[in-house]
Amino acid sequence: MRTLGIDPAVRNTGYALLEGDHTNARALDYGVISVPAKIPQSGALEAVCTGLKNLITKWEPDEVAVEGIIFVQSYRTAISMGAARAAPMIAAASHGLKIYEYAPKKVKKAIVGKGNADKHQVAFMVRALLKLPETPPSDAADALAIAIAHLQSSDPLKASMLERKQV
Amino acid sequence: MRTLGIDPAVRNTGYALLEGDHTNARALDYGVISVPAKIPQSGALEAVCTGLKNLITKWEPDEVAVEGIIFVQSYRTAISMGAARAAPMIAAASHGLKIYEYAPKKVKKAIVGKGNADKHQVAFMVRALLKLPETPPSDAADALAIAIAHLQSSDPLKASMLERKQV
Q1: Cβ <8 Å between B43 and A80
Q2: Å from A15 to nearest chain B CA?
C-alpha cells in the first residue's frame, strides 16, 4: 500500500510518499513543491497540479491524503486555501485516486499526542516514526504526518479519532 | 481576438467563447459544465478542469476571464468557491493563457447598467448584446457577461470601471 500525503499551499506544497501499513511504514520520497511569488496564482496552481501528477505517475500511490481546513483568519485566506486544496484534488482525480481529508488537529494528536503540537514537534516525531536520517523541512513534515495519519486511520484503535472524510 | 469567459462553480460551471472586440462580438459557443452531486468534489473539480481544457483546445481562446469572489456567506462557502476558481485557473495556465478576474458587481454594472442586476436582467441583456436566438441558461449568461466585460475592459471608456486584475 502506497500513500501520498499532501500539505496543500499555493506557494509551498509539502508532499510525502509512504509505503507500508500503520505498523510499519517507510518514506519513499518527500519534499516541497515551491513556486516563486512572481508567478501568478493560476500558474502556481498549475505548477503544483503538474508536480503532483508527476509524483503520482512516478510512485503510483494507491490513495491520497490531504490536510483539511479548520482555522482561517479571513475570507481571503479561505478562498486562497480552497484554491490550494483544489490542485491536489484535481491531480488525484485525474489518476482515478481517492482523496481523503484529515483535520490538522487530529493529525497532530495522532502523531505527537496533542492537537496543538508545533511544527518542530511534528517534524521531530515524523523523523522518529519513519527513522529518517534528517529532520524534514516543515511543509514536508506536515505531509509525512498526514500520510502517517492516513495509514493509522485503518487501525481500529485510531480510526474513530482520525475521522477520515473522502473529498 | 477570442475570449473564454467562465463563471466558476464546483457543480455548474458556465462558459462562453466570444470572438471579436468590444464593439462587435459574436458568441462561438456557450453552455454549462454540470457534474452530478454523487461525484466527490475532487472528481467534480477534475471534470470541470478537463472540460475547460477541451474547450480551450477546440476554440483556442487568446485570453480567459473569470468572475471574482466578493460576497461569501461563510468560510465553508469561501473555501468551496476558492476551489471552484482553481479549476479554470489550472486549465488556462496549462495552455499558457493569461486569466483575468472581474468583480461580479462591476460586470453587472457594465452589462446591465446597475451592479445589483438580477440573473434575468443579465441573461436578457447578454441575449440582446450578442443577438442570440434564445435566452441562455443563467450560468452560461453569467459567463457570457464576464466575456463581454473582458472585451469592454479594453475600451478606454469602461476600462477604469471594470478594473481587470490578472490572477
Answers
A1: no
A2: 18
B63 among known catalytic residues: no
Secondary structure of chain B: what % helix, strand, coil (to 5)? 50, 25, 30
What is the length of chain A? Answer: 167
A134: distance to nearest CA of chain B, Å?
33
Could B83 and A89 be called an inter-chain contact, meaning their C-beta atoms sit closer than 8 Å? Answer: yes
CB neighbours of residue A99 within 10 Å: 24
**Which residues of chain A neighbour B81 with C-beta distances below 8 Å?**
79, 82
Looking up residue B35, the CATH number of its domain turns out to be: 3.30.420.10
User: What pLDDT, on a 0 to 100 scale, did the predictor assign at position A54?
Assistant: 98
ipTM: 0.92
Q: What are phi and psi of B104, to 5 degrees?
A: -50, -45
Is the pTM higher than 0.80? The answer reads: yes
- CA-CA-CA-CA torsion sign (B34, B39, B41, B47): negative
Range of the domain at A79: 2-166
